[in-house]
Amino acid sequence: MALTKSHPFLKYLLHLAHDNLDFRLPEIKALLSLRGKPFHPYENFNEKSPFWRLKDLSEEDVRGIMARSVCAKSAFELWGHGQTHSELRTSLLNYPLENMSPFMQKDSTYRINVYTFNKTLEFTDRLKRIDALDYLPFEGTVSLKSPQHIFCLLEDYGTDPNSIPEHPIHIYFGRWIADGQRELIRSHSVKNRHFIGNTSMDAGLSLIMANHAKVKENDLVFDPFVGTGSLLVACSHFGAYVCGTDIDYNTIHGKGRSSRRNQKWRGPDENIRANLRQYGTEKMYLDVMVSDASKPVWRNAALFDAIITDPPYGIRESTRRTGSHKDITKPPEGIYVESHVPVSQVYHLSDIFTDLLNFSAQHLVMGGTLVYWLPVYQPEYCEEMVPLHPCLRLISNCEQTLSSHTSRRLITMEKIKEPEELDSSAHLADPCFSPYQGHNAFREKYFSGLNKKCGKDNNKSDVNVE
Questions:
Q1: Mean pLDDT of 86-108
Q2: 128, 252, 258, 406: which has the fewest C-beta neighbours closer than 10 Å?
Q3: At what angle do helices 203-212 and 230-237 cross, to 10 degrees?
Q4: pTM for this model (two decimals)
């Protein structure tokens, strides 16, 4: 069994997955914040690199990060590094022997792995790399199957697959500490989920959202656009009690047409509760109910530790709200109009986000977190389009590209003060509100851009045919 104790505040190396690049730094910062630790990288930090060197941490801190992170692959106690193998040797020989020796005893077993980023090495070249480390004072026995200690030589060949250098740009060597939770992306895949819909959130992104929100054990988490409950599944995995609402009766009750191929109707036990039961977290499920997000039903109090949601964009799901007599403008006297109240009305995206931010300011506990997706039309996007609120501080703004002309931003905000009377309408006086209202035409711009792209593709095809 591997030793778990080490000297505090050594150098540590994180190996990050090279996807969702924009989401990695906010996730690691959030997970460090849960432990009360700041993010302190070493000099020459490159956010886009797959290797980050961190300081002012203990091994316990690093294990805590890796127990939750889906953006990080592995973590190491960094013993040495350099731009060449010669520099690596000098760095390793200068590393304190007292830090190495507990893992190099005669009665211990070990293995050395070689990992290369952006380049594949032949097996013989890997062996040569390992043999070249003979200057390290290993006294234990090599065990490939079940070693007590694992060490890793990591070579970084940059991030451009079209221009791979002959020699690595940086080399690291360290003791493996822990792996991240990448396996959760596979085990929680919506492909194998009991209850899904057309817009069920990807498992990896759901877990990232829960981490950005710093969801922890015994938190109370709410999703006002709950859909099939993908975000509730992710938050319950981290020990939070979960609940949600949605305007769609059929989705909430698991009725109607199935989203699965070769299945016409949903089965009798296709519902959100069954999803949590599938992953062993049904005890964290409070309930979901049919409700209009524009007309919240909650008492006026701070209830939730986190609000995590993916509002509808009007592309694959409609942006609607329930109709009301209050929404009907009274006609001039003497003019007769039909006294019909529509069952549902258009719910503009700007109104959705205004209501969401006001609701969060009212119902989040102090220090609670709001995490949501904001769809944007890329040619017109500017930072001023991100909705703001006097009670909420913007923590991070990450982009996920959807198409050549659209993307969505993962917005994370923290409640910093209790709402006052004028806070709910403060956005109306904000000069940023005008570009922010541009979200209302997102659907039209989305399909306009799509049609333009299709037109270009058709023209190319016509040219090729001629």
A1: 95
A2: 128
A3: 60
A4: 0.87
